[in-house]
């Protein structure tokens, strides 16, 4: 991970993911302010819609890459003791990966019960 | 060689420039949202799990400590988005001169609370 997501590559990843995430969060904000799903059936129908499901599933890895590069920069800049920094980085990687898998599981299984 | 500029190290007189404020808040808002990721994942999964799960998630979201947290996160999202767009333009060399940079920094700092208030008003008007 560190070799692929460091230096220029990290810089570039942070900006390309940012552009997708800006559009996705813009859509999500509008959706939840103006037309929030009112019950479980509506939420499932929305998430299981192919376009929404695809947009969300693409958003998960891109969002998590963005989160990881960002938190890594912050830890490198402010947490100087090496062991503490590595420990925190490991913790964040685990939390970010677990959350991503949980998001994907929720999206993939959303349409199955219908 | 004496320098004509006033040189001082008094901490009370040293101020972060506006772009610095935007930048540090960009980091603070990003960290806040990263910390929220696992909670959002759990709540999202729970809401999709079934009608009971949906009701449980709604109950969590409607508790006032959650509402306060959501306001903070919504500010974080707006600030991060606005500051991020500003930084992208700066990367492309747009808005780099000092006057413009100060102007867009001030605009960014004001936009997040304005958007926050706007979305609160909208959700009150559209909800019940």
UniProtKB/TrEMBL annotation, chain A:
GO CC annotation terms, alphabetical: plasma membrane
Keyword annotations of the record: Cell inner membrane, Cell membrane, Electron transport, Heme, Iron, Membrane, Metal-binding, Transmembrane, Transmembrane helix, Transport, Tricarboxylic acid cycle
Subcellular localization: Cell inner membrane
Membrane topology type: Multi-pass membrane protein
Origin superkingdom: Bacteria
Pathway recorded for this protein: Carbohydrate metabolism; tricarboxylic acid cycle
Cofactor needs: heme
Protein name as it appears in the record: Succinate dehydrogenase hydrophobic membrane anchor subunit
Species for this entry: Thermochromatium tepidum ATCC 43061
TrEMBL record, chain B:
Cofactor: heme
Intracellular or extracellular location(s): Membrane
GO cellular component: plasma membrane
Cofactor note: The heme is bound between the two transmembrane subunits.
A biological-process GO annotation: tricarboxylic acid cycle
Membrane-spanning intervals of the chain: 21-48, 68-89, 109-127
InterPro entries in UniProt: SQR/QFR_C/D, Succ_DH_cyt_bsu_CS, Succ_DH_cytb556, SuccDH_FuR_B_TM-su
Topology of this chain in the membrane: Multi-pass membrane protein
The UniProt record lists the keyword Disulfide bond: no
Keywords annotated in UniProt: Heme, Iron, Membrane, Metal-binding, Transmembrane, Transmembrane helix
MF annotations from Gene Ontology: electron transfer activity; metal ion binding
CDD domains (alphabetical): SQR_TypeC_SdhC
Binding, heme: 80
Family statement drawn from the similarity comment of this UniProt entry: Belongs to the cytochrome b560 family.
Function: Membrane-anchoring subunit of succinate dehydrogenase (SDH).
Description of how the protein assembles with itself and partners: Part of an enzyme complex containing four subunits: a flavoprotein, an iron-sulfur protein, plus two membrane-anchoring proteins, SdhC and SdhD. The complex can form homotrimers.
Protein name listed in UniProt: Succinate dehydrogenase cytochrome b556 subunit
Organism of this sequence: Thermochromatium tepidum ATCC 43061
């Amino acid at each position: 991970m560190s070799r692929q997501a460091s230096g220029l590559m990290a810089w570039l990843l942070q900006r390309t993911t940012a552009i997708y995430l800006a559009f996705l969060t813009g859509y999500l904000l509008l959706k939840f302010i103006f037309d929030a799903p009112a019950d479980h059936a509506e939420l499932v129908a929305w998430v299981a819609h192919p376009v929404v499901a695809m947009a969300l599933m693409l958003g998960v890895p891109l969002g998590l890459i963005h989160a990881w590069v960002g938190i890594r920069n912050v830890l490198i800049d402010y947490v100087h003791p090496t062991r503490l920094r590595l420990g925190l980085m490991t913790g964040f990687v685990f939390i970010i990966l677990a959350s991503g898998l949980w998001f994907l599981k929720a999206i993939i299984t959303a349409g199955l019960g219908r | 060689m004496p320098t004509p500029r006033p040189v001082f190290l008094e901490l009370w007189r040293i101020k972060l420039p506006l772009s610095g404020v935007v930048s540090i808040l960009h980091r603070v808002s990003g960290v806040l949202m990263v910390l929220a990721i696992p909670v959002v994942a759990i709540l999202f999964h729970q809401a999709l799990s079934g009608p009971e799960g949906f009701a449980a998630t709604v109950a969590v979201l409607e508790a006032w400590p959650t509402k306060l947290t959501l306001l903070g996160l919504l500010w974080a999202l707006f600030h991060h988005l606005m500051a991020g767009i500003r930084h992208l333009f700066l990367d492309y060399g747009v808005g780099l001169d000092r006057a413009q940079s100060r102007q867009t920094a001030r605009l960014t700092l004001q936009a997040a609370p304005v958007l926050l208030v706007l979305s609160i008003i909208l959700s009150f008007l559209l909800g019940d």
